[in-house]
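Ops channel
N.P.: pipeline sanity check, posting one input/output pair.
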């Protein structure tokens, strides 16, 4: 059982998540969603790896679609 709010990720995933936060996340809500997904996946106590990336942030197609919807809604430019 994983203690509440403890996550374990490997270094490649950590670096990619930092890149996502800097380059791809458009809103604070994007980061909150990523955090929720990480906490949920880490609840089993396993170390998260790049194999978990798409489950955490979605595919590039998902990111592009969300960005397009945000532009259409006037949320971002």
């Amino acid at each position: 059982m994983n203690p509440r709010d403890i996550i374990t990720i490997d270094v490649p995933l950590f670096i990619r998540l930092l890149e996502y936060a800097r380059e791809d996340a458009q809103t604070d809500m994007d980061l909150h969603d990523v955090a929720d997904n990480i906490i949920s996946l880490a609840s089993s106590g396993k170390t998260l790896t790049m194999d978990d990336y798409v489950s955490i942030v979605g595919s590039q197609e998902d990111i592009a679609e969300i960005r397009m919807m945000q532009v259409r809604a006037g949320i971002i430019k």
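N.P.: looks fine end to end. The two ends are 43 Å apart (CA to CA).
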